[in-house]
Amino acid sequence: MNDVSQLRHPRRHFIARITAAAAALFAGIPSIANAADEDAFRDGDDSQHDAWMKGLKGKHRQIFHDLAARDQAMLMASNYLDAYTEEFGAKPGEANAVIGIHGPALSMGFTDAAWAKYSFGKANNVVDPATKEPAVKNLFATGGNLSIDTLQKRGVLFLMCNTALRLRSRALAAERGETYDAVYQDLKASRLPGTILVPALVVAINRAQEKGFTYVRV
């Protein structure tokens, strides 16, 4: 179309200009169908390390990030489950709780034998009330309303950070004059039953939040 024709048909020329501008604007933007495909891909972007999440299908899902060798995280998880059951009428499985441990809290995930061998009680200032001495067994493992085994029976999952486990193993190996691999393999084998080793707790927390979990740092 020449300039004279455009002058004779200003409305047609205006529409053509708008159409061209819109095409240029959206040229680099994926279509709605492509966006849906990308969402589907992200939703299916599961790793073997996310398997622990698949059984937790409750409407309410919370992860407690524990950094200290004490029962505070267990208390909070217990209160969380109790409140949803007693005050909100949640049925079994509708509220899920996960406790992720690393740093000093890592010690809570090991057996009595490991506590005695590696002096975790002394290292974490955990005193056995029966002896008034640094604990030589894992006081958090069994035997109480807030013990790890009791919470596990209520459906609470315990995650252990493998990055923190490696750091702890290196420190203990240097301190004891042993090889890193020997200490790491020993500690890895000394985890409490049901404790789930994840590559890095910060990544597990990130991926859990992406799946709809809420987060509390203890």
Report what the structure shows.
The chain folds into two domains: 3-43, no CATH class; 48-217, Hypothetical Protein Ychn, Chain: A (3-Layer(aba) Sandwich). The chain has eleven helices and seven strands. It has helices spanning 3-8, 10-25, 32-43, 51-54, 72-86, 112-118, 120-123, 148-153, 162-176, 180-189, 201-210; strands spanning 60-66, 95-101, 127-128, 133-134, 157-161, 196-198, 214-217. It has a five-stranded parallel β-sheet with strand order 6-5-2-1-7, sandwiched between helices. The protein has a two-stranded antiparallel ribbon with strand order 3-4. Helix 9 (162-176) crosses helix 10. The longest helix has 16 residues, at 10-25. It is globular. The termini are far apart.
Under CATH, the topology of the largest domain is which? Hypothetical Protein Ychn, Chain: A
- Mean pLDDT over all positions: 85
Radius of gyration: 27 Å
**Order of the strands making up the biggest sheet:** 6-5-2-1-7
CATH architecture of the largest domain: 3-Layer(aba) Sandwich
Uncertain parts: 1-44
Helicity level: 40-55%
